[in-house]
Amino acid sequence: EESPVMRLSLIRLDESRYHMVWTSHHILFDGWSIPVLMESFLRTYDQLLSGITVSDEGVDNYEDYIRYLEKRDKVSEECYWRGYMSGLENGSLLPFVKVTADRNKGLGEYGLQLLELGEEETRQLESYAHLHHITLNTVMQGVWSYLLYRYTGSVHVSYGVAVSGRPEDLENVEQRVGLYINTIPLHAVIEEDRTLVSWLQGLQQEQIRSRKYQYASLSDIQRWTELPGDLFDSILVFENF
């Protein structure tokens, strides 16, 4: 009912050069969808240039995903998240904003901190992860979990992690376009007397188990935990596409 949520503009620069500007609302699709869309666009463009018949891309119904979500086992989902989040007595909020009421209001100072790892550091991290059968994502999750533990002083910490939200049993899911991504809580328990490798492996196993229930909304999980206030105010997004 508003102006278009997606717009394509073709700008002619001279006789043989054009710029195409593509703008869209972020609610339409996730990062995974971008290369899928671009591949389809470039394939169609190449076919038009070659004078051949444009191939039928078929129909991609986002409704299929909505129906999939409607059929999931809500009881098992609730039981899982209640059990997974047990032990967490308070939300894990960063301690840099003193007044709770002022959180998320744009107050304070903000900046971009860029940490670049060189080839040697990257190689060591990859070697460590490979040696202990964990992913680099798990290593980063462990780092952030421990940092939150030091910041908050609580051995139970929680923060948001981004998941693809693409069900393996939904036909052709890797080539679908839409807003599939979801944010779910990661609950880590810091165990100082446990070896680091064992702790990281446990963290990864829990994340694997949570994939079955990664479609739950954050508001539902918040309600099931029965904790006052927000569960977290930080998220970790590990991008490898």
Question: Rg to the nearest angstrom?
Answer: 22 Å
What is the SS-derived class?
Answer: alpha+beta
Q: Beta fraction of the residues?
A: 5-15%
| Secondary structure tally: strands | 5
Gap from first CA to last CA? 34 Å
Query: Treating each run of at least 4 consecutive H or I residues as one helix, how many helices?
Result: 7
Q: Spell out the helices and strands N to C.
A: EEHHHHHEEHHE
Note the main sheet: 3 strands, mixed
Uncertain runs are none
Q: Would you tell me the overall average pLDDT?
A: 90
Strand order of the main beta sheet, please? Answer: 4-3-5
What overall form do the CA principal axes indicate?
globular
Fraction in helix:
25-40%
Descriptive account of the structure:
- This protein is an alpha+beta fold and 241 residues long.
- 38% of the residues lie in helices and 13% in strands.
- The chain is built from 7 helices and 5 strands; from the N terminus they run E-E-H-H-H-H-H-E-E-H-H-E.
- It has helices spanning 33-50, 63-70, 74-85, 119-131, 136-152, 196-210, 218-225; strands at residues 6-12, 18-24, 156-163, 182-189, 235-236.
- The strands form 2 sheets. Strands 4-3-5 form a 3-stranded mixed β-sheet.
- Helix 3 packs across helix 7 and helix 5 crosses helix 6 (196-210).
- The model has no long low-confidence stretch (mean pLDDT 90).
